[in-house]
Amino acid sequence: PRTVAIVGRPNVGKSRLFNRLARKRISIVHDMPGVTRDVITAEVEDGGYTLLDTGGLGLTGSDTPARITKASEAQVGFAIEAASVILFVIDAREGVTGLDERIAQLLRKSRKHVLLVANKADRGQEKLADISEFYRLGFGEPFYISAEHGNGEAEVRNAVLEKLGPVQEETDEERARLHICFLGRPNVGKSSLSNRLLKSDRLIVSDVPGTTRDAVELDFSYTNKDGKPWLFRLVDTAGIRAAPKLSSSVEYFSRLRSLEAIHGSDVVFMVLDAMDGVTQQDKAIAGEIVKAQKPIVIVVNKWDLVHEAFRTHSPGMEKYKNARDFREKFEKAMFDQLFFTPGAPVMFVSALTGHEIDRMLRAARALDRRLDTKIPTARLNATLIKLADRTPPPAIGGQRFKIYYATQTSRRPFRIKVFCNQERTLTESYRRYLEAGLVKEFELDGCPIHFDLVGKK
Ligand code: GDP
């Protein structure tokens, strides 16, 4: 992502410069558990980049010079991680201090684009430090500016844009084929569903569990009600079968080539058998899909058998009032036993009758569309702050998880890089809480979000 960071020792005017470049005033609030505004962010629209002021990071208010040095080093380290262009602000009047030199040293090692900005060069101010001092820092001639009055601002703006390079235009939606696959244990109806979709006999349905066939890829289109064809590629995993001797489901699963199918898919259909409920093996498979960070459409197949069972008053069906009640209980039991990304769609279908097969494709398509969402960094951080305000993270061994700054780094899958105090203080349940909160806020139902934590181990 296009990110620009402002660094420099305290009082050189970083936040003034920040407000100028961001073209707005960002107010700073007090420390709070979970997220602080140690790092302040703004989206700079006329350049398409995220601007960061790291100036608050690591400072507490009552800081000794030694602490300030430490905090400044942390700020620079952070900026180097997070940004591609760094604005290194110094004081044009005071000249270069020891701390400036220390910061310069770290920045020189970073190989990032560094622009040296000598602030407080107000018009009519003649008492500027000697330029040779600035040269010695190793970043060439400084940009003389007055963040207070705006002199030199345009030059800095332009230099930043030049270093960032042009905004990459998104390759326009020559919408790629949606790659899908059916995953599930043997005999849940994967091949039957494939056949149903393809309305052809190109895939052989077998009654014999454990039959092996090779994975095949099949392209097909589905014409939506509005007449527009949607293109799909089905990676058939029917060929993926257990090596029969392996006992534990984890081992069993790990051997399967279905991992390849998962990774090659945009959306995975996790197939369950309506009559069987959730089995151990289903759990292992669900876990793999979640681990691969793929969006899931949960497909509960053989729905016709449920109706049939009601009709014939099969034993066991008296627990349910009707098909709807069955569905609700099935869903509840499933979500209790399997962890999926919040909002994962659940479809009750029948490969035999074709019930809800179209909806299954529509659900996949809708999920896929969400994967294109770009989360603006400022809103992402504001949301995390809000979530941490609402439910502060638990203290782990006297430490609380704290996010300094977060930014989306990819979309398929969603990856969010989170700069935090200590990686280990993020509990799994809090991670899920944050994920669920982001899914809700940015309408990413069913799309897993992966957090890449950057902090002390
Ligand atoms: P796979 O191993 O997951 O590919 O499962 P198959 O597609 O080979 O199906 C296993 C068995 O379940 C076959 O006998 C199918 O005819 C049957 N089957 C699949 N889908 C349905 C369904 O929706 N309703 C009913 N009644 N049977 C189904």
Automatic annotation (TrEMBL):
GO molecular function: GTP binding; ribosome binding
Start and end residues of each EngA-type G domain: 2-168, 178-372
Keywords recorded for this protein, A-Z: GTP-binding, Nucleotide-binding, Repeat, Ribosome biogenesis
CDD domains named among the record's database cross-references: EngA1 (cd01894), EngA2 (cd01895)
Residues given in the record as GTP 2 binding sites: 184-191, 236-240, 301-304
InterPro entries on file: G_ENGA, GTP-bd, GTPase_Der, KH_dom-like, KH_dom-like_a/b, P-loop_NTPase, Small_GTP-bd
Annotated residues for binding of GTP 1: 8-15, 53-57, 119-122
Family annotation (Pfam families): KH_dom-like, MMR_HSR1
Quaternary state and interactors: Associates with the 50S ribosomal subunit.
Family named by the database record: Belongs to the TRAFAC class TrmE-Era-EngA-EngB-Septin-like GTPase superfamily. EngA (Der) GTPase family.
Protein name per UniProt: GTPase Der
Upper taxonomic lineage: Bacteria, Pseudomonadati, Verrucomicrobiota, Opitutia, Opitutales
